[in-house]
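**User:** Hello, beginner here. Are you able to go through the protein record under this note? It all follows right here:
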Amino acid sequence: SGSKDVQLHDLFDFDQIYYIHPLLILILLFAFVFWFHRLCKTFWRAFKFWEIRNFYIEALKINSRDLRDCSWKDILNCLKEAQKEYKMNIRKQELTELDVYHRMLRFKNYLIAMVNKGVLPCKIW
């Protein structure tokens, strides 16, 4: 039968490939930068999650399987125990529940204040 295999050079005219419109190059460059940024951001987030996971495992002595069943009170107790070894709060020897709550609220209050002052954009998470 008279069927012929189709080759790549039958589909594209490689003599014209040397002329690529500058707008196409700009769009491809922008797409590459965008996806490279997304890839870096994904790796950065994965690294931060890995650090958090290691903190729970090493400092708090809570493995990944037990974390699902831990209450907030258990985690606070583990934080108080870890304070003795890791000195997370340098101003006090003993860490209390109130210290942990103040630390969390201070972060939220700074974040809200910066949004109110226009330093950070108001973005719905």
Remarks:
- Residues 62 and 68 are 10 Å apart (CA to CA).
- The helical segments are 8-11, 22-59, 64-67, 72-86, 97-116.
- The two ends are 63 Å apart (CA to CA).
